[in-house]
Amino acid sequence: MGTTISLAQWLNSGINVLLPILVAVLTSRVADGAVKALVLLLLSAVSGYLVSWLSALDSGLAFDFSQASFTAVLGFVVAVAAHFGVWKPGGVTGSGGAVQSAMPGGIGGRHSAV
User: How far apart are CA 4 and CA 94, in angstroms?
Assistant: First the structure.
């Protein structure tokens, strides 16, 4: 039984490697780690379901919810690994990373009460 990896799956993997950078753009530098993780989970889910849906449309097959869910979870794992293995050690993401240093503001910022 042979298995092939589709172009959509490769595309999703590439997108998920870059998602930590998008999370750094969307979230505040002082945002709690849980907020950043939830944003990453949401973006991974959107990416996984969208790529699976587009792949089903392209192939003419029915949308497979379990396959899409697996793709989303796997995408989240890839994104977390990319963050801790590549982007954060390279000084790109993380609270002290280049992206959040250059872009103040975003989701999860601590605002002073007026």
Answer: 35
